[in-house]
Amino acid sequence: MPTPLPHGIHKRSLLRNDVYESIRDAIIDGTFAAGERLRDPELEAWLGVSRTPIREALLRLERAGLIVSQPGRATMVASLDPAATKDARQVVAAMHELATRLAVPVLTEEHLANMVTANAKFSAALETDDVDAALAADDQFHAEMVAACANAMIPLVLDQSMPVLRRMEYQRFSSDQARHSVTAHAQIIKLASLGDTEAASLATRDNWLSLDTQIQN
Question: What's the pLDDT at 214?
Fold first, then answer.
């Protein structure tokens, strides 16, 4: 579809990461469709920034598997690749399982309360078919474990692996399949509050691996 309006939605002082996130999110939610060509001048007009941060963002998106570049020819949105998505799902599941193993012994009441709040927001967003809000609440839920685990490498790996998986998450959260995650989140909270590190870690892993159903479909 055409580049979104309004143009110039970002100021010149926009951080490079914000440019990356804007283009990434437009790919994830389907604003930029698979196979669509991304043109620098149109992206500049849309984002209101110069070509340099856009080119840097496109390089990151290529490494993340969301775009493909043909030197001297075109930059296009990558097609959904089931194999790449499955690989990303396995890595993300492993990272969140590790984060939970490290986090559960040091979780505070505040962490648990934040997870309960995030899951309530997640459930409410699904009820109103607000996919963006559901994704944000899901991120908030899992971010508590990642923050508590205090392993600086985990968010770096997740940042690299999540974009390609997020396209599939967007589809899942648009369907009834996502309701399963509300129950899964509640179970993770319960196990974590009991201090059951092993069970909470496996429940977290299974929550992410359950995305495999959507990939197969």
Answer: 47
